[in-house]
Amino acid sequence: MFNASLLKKFNGIETPFYYYDTKLLRQTLDSAQRAAKKYDIELHYALKANANKQILKLIKDAGFGADCVSGNEVKRASECGFKADKIVFAGVGKSDSEIRFAIKKNIFCFNCESIDELKVINEIAKSENKKARVALRINPNVNAHTHHYITTGLEENKFGINAWELEETLKTIHKSKFLNLIGLHFHIGSQITDLTVFKNLCLKVNDMLVWFANRNVFVENINLGGGLGVDYYHPDKSPVPDFENYFSLFRKFLKTEPNQKLHLEPGRAIVAQCGSLISKVLFVKKGVQTNFIILDAGMTELLRPALYQSYHKMENLTGAKRKESLKYDVTGPICESSDCFGKAVDLPETKRGDILAIRTTGAYAESMSLDYNLRNRAKAYLAEDL
Ligand code: LLP
């Protein structure tokens, strides 16, 4: 990905910065949309993965809707051109003002996570004299077999309405004049690489659909969330995820009615591989048992390793041709021992001033960045900006 001419373009740009390979992003969007059309699936991109305005515009232009989890994400999505009737708003803790804002915007749907939330939306919709379209986010109790911090569909998680609350939920909806139930929503977790997990989800959802049908409740929209994982170990092996295989699985196992629409909310799978965090080596330091590389990027630009012990491939772009390979602990400059991108990482002999790329950082890097230690926010560059 990083040839000499690109490296030359990096010269003079202040590090650290995010670099987005928009050619790869376009290929990914194209492949996702082609497969989605084939399997008649509507895609809502999960803004939380990356809400960079330029990236969002490309995603919007490719025909995606938007999956938002805050009032500001709803605002950002509409500023970037996503039509209100393609915006869904999820989240376990929507504030009254966020709900009012989204009702005024007339968004497609609220994905509701509790009975109390339904009551609040009904009240606010009433005060705005509007009907709010809602989908019930149901906790299906399906194990996503991923990191426990990004598992959301188990009973022990705070997300969604539990199966035993559904009877009461329906009663609440029947009593609420300002709610219009249009769908069911499920999301069981993120970075899921074992696709049988999605099959298990489909089987659970089929049971749910029967449950609703038995009560004469027909829901037009079935939204199965996001979660498709990417290959952090080999970012160049198949940089465009296999959407065809992923989408076909839902059509194979999910028993929807002909007039029921299927929606998915991919985030990571769309943007992860197109992004790299580019950073300069400040110091190389000899430790007792290891050598430390101290980068000018830290957990403030990429929190995932500190938070989930996640792996990101690293490449020394300027030292690639050096023969000797050494083991380094690659760390950032932040005053926390968890500010470490990898331990005992094999890299060519590395020197002060070298430029490193931390790969697969298009998702959940820029969007999770912090200004801890009063750091400046790193800038982002698209391939066409350079
Ligand atoms: N829909 C809902 C309701 C979600 O909660 C999420 C992610 C998505 C869609 C998109 O999931 P994706 O396709 O990106 O897996 N910060 C963590 C990931 C947190 C994901 C939270 N929800 C990480 O860096 O791994």
Helix and strand topology:
Elements: H1 4-10, E1 17-20, H2 22-38, E2 41-46, H3 53-61, E3 65-68, H4 71-79, E4 87-89, H5 96-105, E5 109-112, H6 115-127, E6 132-137, H7 166-175, E7 179-185, H8 196-214, E8 221-223, H9 243-253, E9 261-264, H10 268-271, E10 275-286, E11 291-295, H11 304-308, E12 314-316, E13 325-331, E14 340-348, E15 355-358, E16 379-382
Parallel strand pairs: 1-16, 2-3, 2-9, 3-4, 4-5, 5-6, 6-7, 7-8, 8-9, 11-13
Antiparallel strand pairs: 1-10, 10-11, 10-15, 12-15, 13-14
Helix pairs in contact: 5-6
Ligand LLP binds next to α10 and α11.
Order of helices and strands: HEHEHEHEHEHEHEHEHEHEEHEEEEE
Oligomer: single chain
Strand content: 15-25%
- Put simply, the count of helices is 11
Q: Which bin fits the share of residues in helices?
A: 25-40%
Q: If classified by CATH, what would the architecture of the largest domain be? A: Alpha-Beta Barrel
Give the averaged pLDDT, no decimals. Answer: 95
**Major sheet:** 8 strands, mixed
Low-confidence spans = none
**Gyration radius over CA:** 22 Å
Which molecules are bound in this entry?
ligand LLP
Total strand count, please?
16
User: How many separate structural domains?
Assistant: 2
Q: What is the CATH H-level superfamily of the largest domain?
A: Alanine racemase
What general form does the structure show?
A: elongated
Q: Output the CATH topology of the largest domain.
A: TIM Barrel
Distance from N terminus to C terminus (CA atoms, Å) equals 15 Å
Name of the CATH first level of the largest domain: Alpha Beta
